[in-house]
Amino acid sequence: MVNAVLLNNIDHRDLRVDPRRGARFDDDRVMSSVTFPAEFRNVQAHYPIVFRTTGDGGFQPIALFGLREGENLFLKKSDGPDGESWDATCLPLAVERQPFLIGTSDDGGLLMHIDLDSPRVGTTTGEPLFREHGGTTDFLDRMNSVLLALYEGLQGTAAFIDSLVRHELLEPFALDVRLDDGSQLRLAGLHTIAEERLRALDGDALAQLSRDGHLEAAYMAVASLSNLRILIERMNRTHAGR
């Protein structure tokens, strides 16, 4: 459960947040995170971008970190002092922002919240949020920027999804994998960009997608699927204990 409260410099002046990555923060069980078109260029370099259905019948792009629930193949043991690290140079903003959340006031203003029950939150270790003599720390300023970029990016997702649906550019996706140890798994219930239909669009449709800024994002999502092979390789190494 999330125990989200409005962040303030009186009640939370002594709070610290640990930004490191590790199983002690439940990072090992994070299979995916939401992402958004403006983030695709960075995300596609490491993670497959696919689309899951939402409760209202729509779609949400997500970045995959694993091939089955409860498994993150990007969290690895390291020789550093922390013992674990995230094995990619790009960390999606929806992951980086933890344990902070964004909310809105009655007049529509944006407010910063924090999950007090997050294992990242404490008073002894991690990054301070407020300066001793007043003001916010560089760390909290960075997290505020992350939340704002995430909020604005997610606001732009609806128009992108509408374009994909209008042009019938989403199709069901399933992946059957046989690992080196002989075990099998199936990843299903997701959607990907229908690449053949995308290539077959006429000039007017392509021009409109381009003007709206959606064509590049669609091809970034297509390109990202090459990372499925890398996820399989990571899973094979994990199963082999490497």
Can you walk through the features of this model?
Strand 6 and strand 7 form a beta hairpin. 31% of the residues lie in helices and 24% in strands. It has one domain. The chain is globular. The longest helix has 18 residues. The model has no long low-confidence stretch (mean pLDDT 93). By secondary structure, it is an alpha+beta fold.
What is the secondary structure topology, with strand pairs?
Layout: E1 4-6, E2 16-17, E3 32-34, H1 40-43, E4 49-53, E5 59-64, E6 75-77, E7 84-86, H2 93-96, E8 100-104, E9 110-115, E10 121-122, E11 127-128, H3 138-155, H4 157-166, E12 170-178, E13 184-193, H5 195-200, H6 203-211, H7 215-224, H8 227-239
Antiparallel strand pairs: 1-9, 2-10, 2-11, 3-5, 4-5, 6-7, 8-9, 12-13
Domains (count): 1
How much helix, percentage-wise, in residues?
25-40%
Instruction: Write down the overall mean pLDDT.
Output: 93
Query: What is the makeup of the main sheet?
Result: 3 strands, antiparallel
Q: Roughly what fraction of the amino acids lie in strands? A: 15-25%
Would you report the number of β strands?
Answer: 13
**N-to-C terminal Cα separation, in Å?**
34 Å
Strand order of the largest sheet: 1-9-8
| Rounded Rg | 20 Å
Global geometry: globular
